[in-house]
Design goal:
Blueprint: E1 4-5, H1 16-23, H2 36-49, E2 53-57, H3 60-71, E3 76-81, H4 85-88, H5 93-98, E4 101-105, H6 115-120, E5 131-138, H7 148-160, E6 164-169, H8 172-179, H9 183-187, E7 192-196, E8 207-211, H10 213-225, H11 234-246, H12 251-266, E9 272-273, E10 282-286, H13 292-301, E11 304-305, E12 313-316, H14 323-337
The structure holds pyridoxal-5'-phosphate (PLP).
């Protein structure tokens, strides 16, 4: 029985063609700067987003950390959503390693930050305060695509106050595919962008930090400093190239599968799908309280994995879940609650 794993889009396994690309990758020593496959991946990513340069790193936590360390110094501050991954789920790395203070701001229901609120929280030039240097946004945000005009307004705001603008784009291409705007348009307002290759794109490891050449040069110093310099990393970069060339357009399928999962679950008594729809490849669902652990045990017996410790339960589609898996999931939920 094939497992239907809806816990995250990080669970995908590399298929045969990707493994072949990895096995056949030409490699060098990337710390010496002569791994041709890493060089090719970085050039490809920079070009796709319309920026000058890119840096391959081990994880999205690391690329976001490198962005913080590069944009901000000790006792500087960055503005960030209260529910943002960078603030909430990255171990406080900016504080631990950079002495950088976050200023969290409550996210609006659609995932945006109220820019008037953001502007009020930029600190005046007065030694009582940390120096505000950076605004961090996240797109997609819990599956939601941020509107392009909002990104443009955020750019204007940071320009008025001489701040930098970073994007945690762990699922950047889900946003691009869903929004019909090009990758370069969505990237344009930002000074730096972090992209995960190992989420819906399906690579086993790796993230990219993308920006202008001077920024990436400085970020590369920090990558070495945090122990992130890798050697024959062309083996991993080959998977990155493979997914950028083959797995972007197909994200559409994940979004369709998530939508049919949302519709199927919404038709079951006692199940409430948040905002009545999927957000790109994610569905957030409230199941009857008190039945959550029973439900996840029942699903597991049917080969379906979910993380259902509390409501809302997040279900995530990806390239290892097909339409048949979605039908089986809806049927198993119906069987348990019916
Ligand atoms: C997964 C993720 C990251 C980075 O996570 P890693 O597991 O360190 O690669 C960053 N931001 C968001 C929104 C994410 O979902």
């Amino acid at each position: 029985m094939k497992t239907i794993d809806l816990r995250s889009d990080t669970v995908t396994r590399p298929g045969e063609a990707m493994r072949r690309a990895m096995a056949e990758a030409e490699v060098g020593d990337d710390v010496f700067g002569d791994d041709p496959t890493v060089i090719r991946l970085e050039a490809l990513a920079a070009e796709m987003l319309g920026k000058e340069a890119a840096l391959f790193a081990s994880s999205g936590t690391q690329t976001n950390l490198l962005a913080l360390l590069t944009h901000c110094g000790r006792a500087d501050e960055y503005l960030v959503g209260q529910k943002a991954h960078t603030y909430l789920y990255e171990g406080g790395g900016g504080a631990a390693l950079g002495g950088i203070q976050p200023q969290p701001i409550e996210n609006e229901a659609d995932g945006t930050l109220d820019l008037a609120k953001v502007e009020r929280l930029i600190k005046p030039d007065d030694f009582h305060f940390a120096r505000t240097r950076l605004l961090c946004l996240e797109n997609t945000f819990y599956g939601r695509v941020l509107p392009l005009d909002y990104l443009g307004r955020a750019r204007k705001l940071v320009d008025r106050h001489s701040l930098q603008l970073h994007l945690d784009g762990a699922r950047f291409f889900n946003a691009a595919v869903e929004s019909s705007h090009s990758a370069t348009e969505i990237a344009a307002p930002f000074d730096s962008i972090s992209i995960c290759l190992s989420k819906g794109l399906g690579a086993p490891v790796g993230s990219l930090l993308i920006g202008d050449a001077d920024f990436i040069k400085e970020a590369k110093r920090w990558r070495k400093c945090v122990g992130g310099g890798m050697r024959q990393s062309g083996i991993l970069a080959a998977a990155g190239i493979y997914v950028l060339e083959n797995h972007i357009d197909r994200l559409e399928e994940d979004h369709e599968n998530a939508q049919s999962l949302a519709e199927g679950l919404a038709s079951i008594d006692g199940v409430k799908v948040n905002s009545n729809a999927a957000h790109t490849n994610m569905v957030f669902v409230d199941f009857p309280e008190g039945r959550l652990s029973g439900l996840s045990d029942h699903l597991e017996k049917n080969g379906i994995l979910v993380l259902a410790d509390y409501n809302p339960v997040r279900l995530v589609t990806h390239l290892d879940v097909d339409a048949d898996g979605i039908d089986k999931t809806v049927a198993a939920v119906k069987e348990f609650l019916g």
